[in-house]
Amino acid sequence: MAQEPAKTSGPPAHAGWRWALIGLAVAGVAAAFGYVGGWLAPHRLTPSRLVDTLQASGGEHPGFRRNHAKGVCVAGRFESNGALARYSAATLFAAGATTSVVGRLAIPGGNPYAPDSSVPIRSFALRFDLPDGEQWRTGMNAMPLFPVSTPQAFYEMQLATRPDPATGKPDPARAKAFFTSHPETAAFLGWIKKAKPSASYATETYRSINAFYLRDAGGQRHAVRWMVVPEQPPEGDGGPAAGDTDYLAADLSKRLAAGPLRWHLQMVLAAPGDPVDDATRAWPDGRQMVDAGTLVIDGTQPQADGPCRDVNYDPTILPRGIEVSGDPLLAARSAAYADSYLRRTSEEAHVPGTARPGEDKR
Amino acid sequence: MSRFATFHPFARVLHWLMALMILTMLFVGAGMVSTVETKHDWLLAIHKPLGVTIFVLALIRLGFRLTHRPPPLPADMPAWQKLAAHGSHWLLYALMISLPLVGWGMLSAGNYPVTLGGGLLLPPILPADPVLFAWLREAHRYLAWLFFLTFLLHMGAALMHGLIRRDGVLQSMTGTREPD
């Protein structure tokens, strides 16, 4: 039982092989780590590569989001009517519950100085702050479906449609080759050909596009997509004055000065067989809809110092009672938004190696 | 009969359990920030509760370590190796405790809800502040790198003790007996 003094009796037999074994073990673990972390897998589509392509299209605008860079903060509340409580256990859907909301209205693209008429799409992001500390974040777009169904196809679409450095415009041949080889884009292309930039954020219907699951108190899940439908009637023909490139924020302020704006949160329930993992395929009309309550927006602030500036509207941040679906775009959005968020906050923090806000390269 | 003094069985169980958890954690962390596939979501869902578990176990382990003397290192070990052994052990303890705290603080500063799954929610430990978030997020990355490199050094040294020096240091943690 007594402990003998440890002794080393010269070099062991086959010392060379023993050292090699140790080296192999250490190198093997390091290589596995390098592969998992992507450093030894240069062809993997990483969040960083995805955001790099967005940045290449939008230009370098330190401190701004890498997509949907131009926008304004809004604030308000969600007033639940209780109709959704039987489908989701999330406390914000209880009858009479009021949840405060920090939102952001924006236009797609990485250029924070783009004219409002440059794209026919507007987006609405919301963060619901539940009293128990839970949050629901959602980023919605005023379009019926998404052009592609996978992150890889999204990345290839960015490459195919980004401005050619020589001409400053996308190369039509490259874009055509992409869209021809991706027939799932046809429905979106058909829609966007006819879409016109709206003169107001307030009159748009914004959609989750990606599907999610609601989980009810009994544990049953229900596949849904949601949208916020405006109470404000659509505009007539009186669009913005020619040459006005920033009319959306001005229109919003003007409307809010006259009173709050309202949208209804409509949950669209999938029928059996509806795709829940493919954002390029809209569900047929006539699906059961549940009006969950009213989103009331009563204030706006510029994004430079508004409360939405430092919010990453990651659509996978969900309260109990709402869950992600198998839609592969959701994880990609979460991963890419986190990368974009780190880039812009690092620029705010002056982390060495990052550009300073204000040093824009258009 | 063991030829060498070994660590207390509780310390050995904690060591190997945490070794598995920490290595898993480092790979999960490196993997989740380098993929846009759906595994990003489930890796993130593992990362947070696993980090909290490691943090709690690390505190228990530190308490046990401070109240129980480990077996001494062999007397004939060169002084620099002893220094490296002690230094790396305390560095590993510091990282086991600081990395989860930096992660928790970083999510707090980013104003993210710190969800652990199953409806469990941790309170924020820092105020929401994007500048603080960025610094903590970078610290989380570089501390994790330091953790991985220290782990490699630790594993290499343990194998060196077991295969080259054969001085019982590795066996003090594996608890295996020497053949007569």
**What is the structural class of chain A?**
alpha+beta
How do the strands of the widest beta sheet of chain B line up side by side?
1-2
Separation, N- and C-terminal Cα atoms of chain A: 77 Å
Biggest beta sheet attributes of chain A: 10 strands, antiparallel
Global morphology of chain B: elongated
- Name given to the CATH homologous superfamily of chain A: Catalase core domain
Summarize the structure.
The complex is a heterodimer of chains A (362) and B (180). Chain A has helices at residues 15-36, 47-58, 151-161, 172-181, 186-194, 247-258, 328-349, and strands spanning 70-80, 98-107, 123-129, 135-141, 206-207, 212-215, 221-230, 261-269, 289-302, 322-324.
Task: Report on this structure.
The complex is a heterodimer of chains A (362) and B (180). Helix content of chain A is 27%, strand content 21%. With 362 residues, chain A is of the alpha+beta class. Chain A has a single domain (15-350), classed as Catalase core domain (Catalase HpII,  Chain A, domain 1), CATH 2.40.180.10. The longest helix of chain A is centred in the first third of the chain and has 22 residues, at 15-36. Chain B has helices at residues 9-32, 39-67, 79-109, 130-165, 169-174; strands spanning 114-117, 120-122. In chain B, a hairpin with a 2-residue loop joins β1 (114-117) and β2 (120-122). The model of chain B has no long low-confidence stretch (mean pLDDT 94). The chains are: A alpha+beta (362), B mainly alpha (180). At the A-B interface, α1 and α7 of A face α1, α2 and α4 of B.
